[in-house]
Amino acid sequence: MDIQAIINGIVTAGEQEIASIESKAEAQVRSIRNAAEAEADKQKDRILKDAHVRLNRTQAVISQRAAMQALQMHANARQQLILMVLEKARVDMDTIRTKAEYPSILGVLIHDAIHAILPSLVREQKMILHVDKRDESALDSIEIPFKDRVLVQCDIHCSGGCEVESDDGMVRVLNTFESRFERALPQVQQDLSVYFEEKITSS
């Protein structure tokens, strides 16, 4: 075999080896590229999933805050309505004395207060009836129970009604408009709250 043939054989073998190496290299490049693209897709999916979770969480927080703010506004509106009604009731209470039926109302309040205190008194014990100076003339038309045991004093200031106490000051019954209003206030507020809740919800 001549030298040229040997050289040609070496060249051919070298070219084949180079082609094989290039083929393997290209296969590795494709494998690496595919693996990288697959990992990139996974990373992208994880990022999108995390972003979606964060978005859902943020939306939930915003929705919760909005709901809480709406409830607070709702409660504030209801409370404002209740305060307006109570204030009007207080204003109206100050005008009851000017009404023609006030003396009969005062008579009922005096009657109730005296009968409420009686069980707490000893036999024949005196009691003091306290009324507003403005009610002095109205007393003329009122039949006071157990009048012989009652000392009348016009020494309180109120929108109407009376107070009765034992002569030793140990027992006292408050039956003024203000005291009755304060006693009824928790129930009135509850009733108004339910009423306005129904009104606001149905509107």
General description of the model:
The protein is an alpha+beta fold and 203 residues long. The chain has two domains: 1-78; 100-183, ATP synthase, E subunit, C-terminal (hypothetical protein PF0899 fold), CATH 3.30.2320. Helix content is 66%, strand content 12%. The protein is built from three helices and four strands; from the N terminus they run ααββββα. The protein has helices at 3-93, 102-117, 177-202, and strands spanning 127-132, 150-156, 161-166, 172-176. It has a four-stranded mixed beta sheet. The protein is rod-shaped and about 160 Å long. The N and C termini lie far apart (109 Å).
Keywords:
hypothetical protein PF0899 fold; 66% helix
Entry summary:
This protein is of the alpha+beta class and 203 residues long.
Beta-strand level of the residues, as a percent range?
A: 5-15%
- Whole-number radius of gyration? 47 Å
Side by side, the strands of the main sheet go 2-1-3-4
DSSP helical segment count: 3
Shape: rod-shaped
CATH topology of the largest domain: the name is: hypothetical protein PF0899 fold
| Structural class determined from secondary elements | alpha+beta
Q: Spans with pLDDT under 50 lasting ≥5 residues?
A: none
| First-last Cα distance | 109 Å
How many E strands?
4
CATH 2nd-level architecture of the largest domain: 2-Layer Sandwich
| CATH superfamily descriptor of the largest domain | ATP synthase, E subunit, C-terminal
- The amount of helix comes to 55-70%
Main beta-sheet annotation: 4 strands, mixed
How many domains in all?
2
Mean pLDDT: 81
State the CATH class of the largest domain: Alpha Beta
H/E element sequence: HHEEEEH
